[in-house]
Amino acid sequence: MRFRKRRGTISKWTMLPAGPAGREILQLMALASGGADFLPRIPCPLQRFLRRTDIPLHIELAVANHPGRPRDPPRPALSGSGIEIDKRGCIRSLRSAECRLLPPDIPVRKLALETGNSATHLLLGYGPELNAHDGTDRYDFSDPFHRVTRFHSLFAPQARITDPIAFLKRLHYKGIMVSRFPARDTLQRICGAFKRHLDIETDGWQERACRFDAEWSRLRPWQQRAALPVLDIARHMVDASPRSGHPLDEPGVILLDRPDLLCAGRLLPMWMTLVECLVPRMQCVLTLSGEARSSLPRSLQGKRLDLPAAPPPQRRAAAASRLPRTTVVLIDVDGALPNLALMKLSRYFKARGRRVVLARKDCRIEGPEHVYASSVFFRPSSLARVEELKERYGDSITVGGTGVDSRKRLPPAIENLPADYPLYPELEDRAIGFLTRGCPGACDFCIVPVKEGRPRQVADLDDLLQNRFRKLILLDDNILAHPRSGELLEDMARRDIEVNFNQTLDLRLLDKEKAGLLRRIRCSNVRFTRSVRHFSLNDTLHLDLVRRRYAQIGFGRDDNVEFICMYGYNTALAEDVERFRFLRSLPGAYVFVQRYQPHIEGAEPDLSGFFDERADALIDELIKILFPQNMKSMETYYRWLSKRYAQAFGKIHVKLVDTIFRYNCRHGKGRYIASLAGTSG
User: Fold this and answer.
1) Percent of the chain with pLDDT over 70
2) How far apart are CA 26 and CA 30, in angstroms?
3) What is the mean pLDDT of the chain?
4) What counts of helices (H) and strands (E) characterise the chain?
5) Which residues make beta-bridge pairs with 359?
6) pLDDT tens digits for range 367-394
7) How many angstroms separate the CA atoms of 116 and 555, rounded?
8) Three-state secondary structure call for residue 483
9) DSSP for residue 444
């Protein structure tokens, strides 16, 4: 079947003759567009579409791809897809070489439907008999195949569509009671369309006290029949567009088998006009009787939709730039912060008249005789990048950093130089560096004892502030462990500078005097946009001491006190819950969780005793521990925990999964459950 294009447009309404042949065309469209993962869930045997059992059913389709969000990768204006269904009802997606009907110049790909509820391609379908849920509809996205309900009534008259009262209540709650703009916009447009085209009195639908049970019962039967598919369309468009402010303006396709049976006579043109106004970018393909088709005004039949224009040609990857051999290239492989070692190398080479260029990640530079790369993290992506750099630069490159060698040092002549701040202009008015290095501890998970040894002072504030900075990103490993830490804190407080203790502080090392000094220091986040104090709490040792030191500083609930809590190393679930419970009891405290990442000489995590017989009760308690801010960080821990639970017990913890998706990415809940709480990821 071909849809006629004209000057970059396509018909809004494509009408097919009523009867078995027209219905089968709609069903084949749904099969081709529904996604191979979903078709086995259609409530009918797929083998019945085969004319011959010895030849698979072969379907191809072309899809117009509208542009996505600004950050989405560009899509071709037109792409192809296809499926085959064999005599057993098994479905497989076609490869490009197997497509023989599509234009040869369009790319062929499997439709990106996945198993979540949001949709790159939105397809809705309705049979001639529509039956709504009555108190049995679900909105929790726990069914990974929920998307089949968007078109299953085309195949099975008994299939249920959206409960109209439940949907209107949800839309009203989100749009009116809690003022979510997409829901409010959707409800307003539904109210306007129903009043204008179906003569439904909707003035009270946007009142806070509206009772939709009573409102729905007041509608006449013909109004209910006409409203039912419209509300189902709106429900699925809202579900499929969680990031859209105007979900009813999204593009897609609606397949309708005999809407003239739902909306007979003069009601059909009114209903079609309603759909056209409410969902202006949806393409509609429908079967109609000859009489119904002849009753439609030409203005309705002539409506057209703009097809997406071809995206502008993608910029080719920049060719490797070539520099003079005397240029020194410094490569920051994976740093989240400006790399202090590279800043000192830059100072050293610039003082000798050399040009210095900073490269990051995938920057490609050819020609230099000397390349220095620094890798901070010991992780697969960083190691792969380092190997790629070694292959490209060979003997010209020198690689250092804790990600590759914990013992390699800059020569003292370079280490003692001040940092070259122009190398990282984003630092602006912030200084960065160490006052002390080293730590007296011997924690297996930490690289500092191996790399730095015992605490020692390496600079003073004059060295770091250079008579011009008032903000300092302090990288000290454990400044409170140094014998002169009190003097250093006193100097910071006296100068009234802002300090970001980037590697956190250990509360257990404070005394009354240092607690008072720390309270005087203006502590901040790394961007110096917010007052924050950073501490660490990686185990449950000496919690009573932590509480006393916390009280000595005098924190209250209006303070922002962030505790970095490592997980995934050697703590049990009971210990993790104990830490979170303890921190929730401290006024102003909240958590930033950080998963253990082995360093190059670090120990492997030991989680053999992570769960005990109290696992379910502990998780039930955990999800009730709510911090006043940064719960998005706790969600990271919840997801890691849910995977471990599924691996250990072969099932999901339902309350934990419900908590993960309570506020964020609810449309992905079904996909997450289908992968056994994410254990396949």
Assistant:
1) 95
2) 6
3) 91
4) 22, 27
5) 331
6) 889 999 999 999 999 999 999 999 999 9
7) 44
8) coil
9) T
Q: Could you give the dihedral angle defined by the CA atoms of residues 458, 460, 464 and 470, in that order, rounded to the nearest 10 degrees?
A: 150
| Sign, Cα dihedral of 33, 36, 41, 47 | positive
Q: β-pairing, 356-360 with 78-85?
A: unpaired
For residue 143, pLDDT beyond 90: no
Mean pLDDT of 339-343: 97
Question: Rounded distance, CA 398 to CA 266, Å?
Answer: 80
Residues in the chain: 681
Query: Does pLDDT of 258 surpass 80?
Result: yes
Please give the Cα distance from 40 to 382 (Å, whole number). 42
Give the amino acid at 463: D
Residue 314 per-residue DSSP state: P
* Contact status, residue 403 vs residue 380, Cβ threshold 8 Å: no
Q: Give percent of the chain with pLDDT exceeding 90.
A: 71
Backbone phi and psi for residue 634, each to the nearest 5 degrees, phi listed first:
-65, -30
Q: Which two tokens stand for residue 172?
A: 């009203």
The H-assigned helical ranges of 89-243 are 164-172, 181-198, 212-217, 221-240
Contact call for residues 253 and 233 (beta carbons, < 8 A): no
Strands of 279-361 (E only): list them.
Answer: 282-288, 304-306, 321-322, 328-332, 356-360
Alpha-carbon distance 418 to 435, whole Å?
13
Local structure of residue 675 (DSSP, 8 states)? T
- Would you say residue 113 has pLDDT above 50? no
In which residue are the tokens 């916390």 written? 550
DSSP-assigned letter for residue 524: B
The pLDDT, as a whole number, for residue 310 is: 77
Which residues, at least 6 apart from 134, have a Cβ–Cβ distance to it below 8 Å? 163
Query: Whole-angstrom Cα distance, residue 175 to residue 507?
Result: 45
